[in-house]
């Protein structure tokens, strides 16, 4: 079974600082994908970044980067130069292979950016 | 390109009443998912469709929940009768078969009183 663990229920960061949101995962699939989503108070799930298990380099998308450490089964999200608009819930999710194409989500981390 | 469209956006009903949610996925996306998100938690899969076939409904409480995806496009999720514990956000998502991406709708926030 696949499992995602996010151990930080809440994070408080000063504007313009970098922030790391932790995510560890467990799976027996040799091939899998890892995702990060942002969910603002309005409720929609916004895709941020994706990392494939066989990707050699860490994924980056603008101010977002994924610190992928396969041996440690961790996929931390790094947000550089945080902005007030980054305040939201952040979810780490994993997808397996073949028929198990559903996304399995972690419990989420509530990020608050202080001015 | 229009995103995944869900309606209604909000719904308040009394317990034991029926309720239905509607989802229109992105055009061409074969796979459609219904997730339930309880307050303060991550979404959990209720059912997954490949075209019109439900291929994973192991987490759907079949005594009161039902879903359909006629013609492999729009989908409806129904609860009858609703219970207080069904209060949650119901999210619909879709993906293309050979694509890594999932697109979520804005969700329906259900409150059962």
Structure description:
The complex is a heterodimer of chains A (115) and B (113). By secondary structure, chain A is an all-beta fold. Chain A has no helices and twelve strands. Chain A has strands at residues 3-5, 10-14, 19-21, 24-26, 33-39, 46-52, 60-61, 64-69, 74-79, 88-95, 103-105, 109-114. In chain A, strands 2, 5, 6, 10, 11 and 12 form a six-stranded mixed sheet that branches. A four-stranded antiparallel sheet of chain A has the order 3-9-8-7, with no helix packed on it. The model of chain A has no long low-confidence stretch (mean pLDDT 93). Chain B is mainly beta and 113 residues long. Chain B has no helices and eleven strands. In chain B, strands 2, 4, 5, 6, 9, 10 and 11 form a seven-stranded mixed sheet that branches. The N and C termini of chain B lie far apart (37 Å). Classes of the chains: A mainly beta (115), B mainly beta (113).
Note the main sheet of chain B.
7 strands, mixed
Helix and strand run of chain B: EEEEEEEEEEE
Mass-distribution shape of chain A = globular
Through-space gap between termini of chain A = 41 Å
| Number of helices, counting only DSSP H or I runs of 4 residues or more of chain A | 0
Q: Treating each run of at least 4 consecutive H or I residues as one helix, how many helices of chain B?
A: 0
Percent helix of chain B, as a range, is: under 10%
Low-pLDDT residue spans of chain B: none
- Rounded mean pLDDT of chain B is 92
CA-CA gap between termini of chain B: 37 Å
Tell me roughly what share of residues is in helical segments of chain A: under 10%
Series of H and E elements of chain A: EEEEEEEEEEEE
